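Problem: given the chain below (492 residues), write out its structure.
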Amino acid sequence: MNRPPDDRLSISPVHLWSAGIIGIGMILLVLLRPERLTLVGSIAAAASVGLCLAHVAAILLPREKYSLPFVEGIGLFYLIEFSIQPFLVDFIWPNAAPIRTYVGSPEIIEFNGAVMGALLLGVTSFFVSFHLIRGVIRQQRTLSTLVPDLPPATLVKLGWICVVSHVVWLSFPGVFQIPSLGQLIGPLGFLGFGIFFLLAVRRQTSRLQLLIVFGILLPWRIYLGIKTGALVGTLLLPAFLTFLLAAVNRRRFIIVAAAFAILTLSAYPIFVTYRAILVWETDTLTLADRLNILRRTLSDVASKEIMTQDGETVQTSASRNFRAVRQVLRRLNQSAILAVVYERSPEPVQYWNGETLSRLISSPLPRILWANKPLENLGNTFGHRYGFIVESDTKMSVNLPWLVEGFVNFGWWGLVAVMAGAGIFLGLLDGALNRLGAGVTQTVVAGTLLFPLINHESNISLTVGSTLPTLLILIVILYIAGRLSAPRSGRA
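Solution.
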C-alpha cells in the first residue's frame, strides 16, 4: 500500500547552508545590536529571529510536492512584527526619539532581556506544539477525506455562486440585513475566486469565464476596497490568490510574493493619507471626488508633507521612501506593544485572568442565534487600560496580538499556555486540511480557512471565532454540491 504524501525532509546541503547562514545572521544581529536593545535581550531576540527564519526558509527548500505555506507564513508574521523589530529601533525612532507606538502612549526606555525572553518563550511554545500535533494528525488517513473532492464542472458552478454572492453583497452594503451572513461573505469570496484560480492553472475552465472573473469581477472587487481607503480590504483577495499559488508553483510564488510585498510597502503611505482625507470628506462621494482625493494624496506624499488630524501639514526632511518604510515598520511593531504590557503588568494594570479568552465561548455562535452576543470591541478596552489611547476616545482600537494576550491574562505561564494552545489548534487544522499534492477542492478550502489565521495581530476570539462554523458550513455546501453531481465522474 502506498504511503500518503509526507512533508518530512531529509537533511541536504541546502539545509546545512540555510542553517549556517541563519546562524551567522543571528551572531551579527547580537554584535551590531542598537544601544536601546540590551545584550541579553539581543540574544533572546536573535534566537527568536533564527527560529522564525528557519520556518520562512522552508519555502525555498525543494520538495516533490507542495502544500500551502501556512506555518511558513506564521513564521514570517512573527519575524516581521515581533522578532526583528527590536534590532530596527534606531531606524524606526531615529535620533534617540522616544519609543512610542502611538502619540501619547507610554514610552519604552529599552528592549531588555525579560521582554525578549518572553517573546522567545511564546514563539517557541507555539511552534513546538504546532509541529507535534500536526505530525500526529497527518498520519491519520481518515482525515484526508474530510473535504470531499468535486468534479470541475461542479466546482465551476459553485465558484460562480460564491463569486457573484461576494461581489453583489459588497457592491450594495446595507441592503441585505441578515445577521451573521456578512461574516460568510469573505470566505465565499476566497472560495469562489480560489476555485477559478486553481482551475485556470489546471486549464479546466474556459477563457471566457476567466475573462469575466479576473478581468471584470476581480478589478471591481479591488475598486470596492479602494473606495473604503483600506489597504487590507484592497489587497487581501490578491494576497490570498498569491497564497494559493504556493501550492502549485513555488518558484512563481516567491517572485509574485516579493513583488506583492514591494507593492504593499509602496502603497501603504498613499492609503494612509487617502483614508485620512476620506474621513474629513462627506460620506457621499462621486468617482470624480475620489479621483481628486487620490490626486491630493499623491501630491501630499510626494511633497514630503505629513498631514495631521487637524488638517494641517508638517514638512519633514526624511526622504519619501524612508518615511514609507518607517510608517510600515512602526505600524507592524508588536514587540513595542509587548514591552509596554510587560512593564505595566501586574502593576499598575492587573492581569485579566482569562477575561479576553472567555470570549472564545461566545464568538463561534452566530448572531442570528444570539442577537445580544457581545461585540468584539476588545481593542478599545485594551488601548485604554495600557494607556495607548486616551479615555475619551471610544472609537480607536489597538490590536491585541495572541502572544501579548497570553501575557495580559496570566503572566508568564499564561503566555506559554495560550501560545501552546494556539499551536495545537492551528496544528490540528493544518494537519487535517493542508495536504501535500491535494486537489482543487481541498486546496481552496484549506486556503480559505488557513489564510486569515496567518495573522495573529488581533485577539484570539476575533481571529478564530468564526473558523469552525465556517469550516462546517463549507463542508456542508461541498457535500450538497457533491450529492448533486454524484452521477458524474472525474474529480478535480
